[in-house]
Amino acid sequence: MAKHPTPMLDELEKGPWPSFVSDIKQECDNRAKNPKGLDYQIPAECPDDLLGILELSYHEGETHWKHGGIVGVFGYGGGVIGRYCDQPEKFPGVAHFHTVRLAQPAAKYYTAEYLEAICDIWDLRGSGLTNMHGSTGDIVLLGTQTPQLEEIFFEMTHKLSTDLGGSGSNLRTPESCLGISRCEFACYDSQLMCYQLTQDYQDELHRPAFPYKFKFKFDACPNGCVASIARSDFSVIGTWKDDIKIDQEAVKAYVGGEFKPNGGAHAGRDWGKFDIEAEVVGLCPTACMTYESGKLSIDNKNCTRCMHCINTMPRALKIGDERGASILVGAKAPVLDGAQMGSLLIPFIAAEEPFDEVKEVIENIWEWWMEEGKNRERLGETMKRVGFQKLLEVTGTKAVPQHVSEPRHNPYIFFKEEEVPGGWTRDIADYRKRHMR
Amino acid sequence: MEEAKQKVVEYLQGKKGKTKFYFNDFTDLFPDMKQREVKKILTALVNDGVLEFWSSGSTTMYGLKGAGNRSEVEG
Fold first, then answer.
1. A290, A391, A427, B39: which sits with the fewest CB atoms below 10 Å from its CB?
2. How many CB pairs below 8 A link A and B?
């Protein structure tokens, strides 16, 4: 029997979609039955009260969560987000409902035992409700009370070697794609870079001093499986400098139907015979490919690394050998300004251990943003307000045409006097020799 | 360091009606110091139990431990 009637929430269980209401109800039943005989350290009816307070909010059109709170375990300024409700007598199970964020293993490789151990701790010391994963990629444990925080932290760090993730005005939990562990398109070891920078920037992760949040994400190739270009202030995307490697025999095999395009994906219906002109050459965004007399050619200078041809014919086309990464900055979701995608800052950078080149760019950006950024201003917003050229300056980056996304629309690269031979002054007499008044 | 810590505490005690402060508020207190140096002072004060963090989840602020009425309800 439900503790609180929830007619409005029940509506969200209808239809063909998975429902978070059904999930929470499932946990209500589980905690009521307590099949493992746990000595619950926070009220067993926590999920029931969560549904109750949400139903109340739906009726009233007002939230009953207070804004933020005192956070953390000793010495940490992030990783725990204090949540308190303003109806603690009516809903004692959610009087405190703090969120705990944990750093996920790189590329989210788990063992079943590890996941089970996390869930065991959370069943005992939390609500039993989790969010796998938060949009930063971390493991999000929803709902516990203040006296449990140090206990949870101790068990996570000592038993599971898992640290708290980032929250608040911190470096957020860095995230990477699978990289070279499973993917032949990987241009650098994204998991290693993610791990190394997580270790190197522990202070930035746990002790907040930024104007606002700051996110790193690492995509090992331009397919961008963690969508770093849209989701991180500092996006590292693998790329290559030389030519795409072509195996002409394999191209013929695709054309002849011997190899299935897209690794056999899109096989749910008959799409007809593979047509290299329509499905590859004709879809190249810069039209830099031709297929003539059974030979595929690529004008590599005009290739923008869209990856479509390589994805379609992976046995015939391989990424180049001179590999590294591009760095894009300033992506964000809408809060102050609208959503922004990352802007290209460094077209090509070495991405080898110990990643000193990348770290130098990061630290220059931080130094500038911590000085210039207004409170609650993301890097992308500071960039827009102060100008992209300033970012080039502080990172010691030379302006290149690729920095201009739309000529004449965003001409944010201006010459300075010292960059122009002769400066701004000119010999008028000399000019008049060639130009009549 | 002790002098700097004292300066932070006095600054916070002198602010009436406000209990939460952005990191930038403290860098203004030490205009000749790099941000990382200022951060070290604040970290030391947090470790001493003099300051505590407050967070909305997306933004973090600093305040004197126990200051404001939030501590009674949130402690």
1. A427
2. 87
| Interface predicted TM-score (ipTM) | 0.90
* Domain A7-160 -> CATH class: alpha beta
Print burial letters for A117-152: b (CB count within 10 Å at least 16), e (below 16). Answer: bbeebbbbbbbbbbeebbebbbbbbbbbbbebbeeb
Query: For residues A328 and A344, what is the distance between their CA atoms, to the nearest angstrom?
Result: 4
* Residue-by-residue pLDDT tens, chain B, 75 positions: 899 999 999 999 998 888 999 999 999 999 999 988 999 999 999 999 999 999 998 999 999 998 765 544 554
The CATH code belonging to domain B2-67 is 1.10.10.10
Q: What is the pLDDT of residues A202-215, one digit of tens each?
A: 999 999 999 999 99
In the prediction, which pLDDT does A338 show? 84
User: Which residue of B39, B56, B61, B72 is the best one to mutate when testing the A interface, meaning the one whose CB has the most A CBs within 10 A?
Assistant: B56
Tens digits of residue pLDDT in A59-110: 999 999 998 888 689 989 999 999 999 999 999 999 999 999 999 999 999 9
Domain ranges in chain A are 7-160, 175-240+324-419, 245-318
According to the model, what pLDDT value does residue A268 have?
Answer: 83
Same-fold call for A175-240+324-419 versus A245-318:
no
Exposure class string for A224-260: b at 16+ Cβ within 10 A, else e:
bbbbbbbbbbbbbbbbbeeebebeeebbbebbeeebe
The answer to whether the CB atoms of A167 and B47 lie below 8 A apart is no
- The alpha-carbon gap from B57 to the nearest alpha carbon of chain A, in Å, equals 5
Tell me which residue in A75, A167, A211 faces B55 most closely, judged by beta carbons. Answer: A167
Record: fold of A245-318: Alpha-Beta Plaits (3.30.70)
Which superfamily is assigned to A175-240+324-419 in CATH?
Sulfite Reductase Hemoprotein, domain 1 (3.30.413.10)
Question: Residue A330 is which amino acid?
Answer: G
Cβ(B49)–Cβ(A159) below 8 Å: no
The tens digit of pLDDT for each residue in A333-370 reads: 988 778 999 999 999 999 999 999 999 999 999 999 99
